[in-house]
Each structure stands twice: as C-alpha cells, then as structure tokens.
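Appendix B. Chain record.
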Amino acid sequence: MISILEIYLIAINLVTFFIYGIDKLKAKRGKWRIPESMLLTLAVVGGSIGALLGMLVFRHKTKHKKFIIGVPLILAAQVALLIAIMAK
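Structure tokens predicted for this chain:
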C-alpha cells in the first residue's frame, strides 16, 4: 500500500518538474517569470528530483550556480535524511 508520504513526494516532484517547464517557456516568450526563490523552495519541500529533472530536460537554470550546486545538495540532504529515518 502506498503511504501518504509517497503520494506527497510523487505529487510535489511532478508539480516541481512542470513548474520548471512553465518557467522555461515563459523565459523563452519574455513573459512574467516564476521567482527563483519559489523554484528553490519547491526543491526544499520535497521536489528536488523534479527540480533536477526539470533542469536537465528543459535545460533551465543550468548556468546559475545556486541551482547547479544547490539542487543536487538539497537532493543529497533529503536522501541522507530519508536513510537516517529508515535506519531507525
């Protein structure tokens, strides 16, 4: 049976992935953009896999150090936290 945490993580990563895609599309069209703080916040609240995939698939934010370093670090921290929780 799938847990609420698993449902949340799937949902937040899908949302984050699509938000990165929407922001890339808006950037190409010169439209209003999604703030970088929001993109990073989505990664922090569990969407780090979606953020990383969005960066790679859409080639978005790949020249910004806070993203190319920050998102993988956030993912690593989340994986370490998950391992620590599961080890108990």
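Further analysis of this model is presented in Appendix C.
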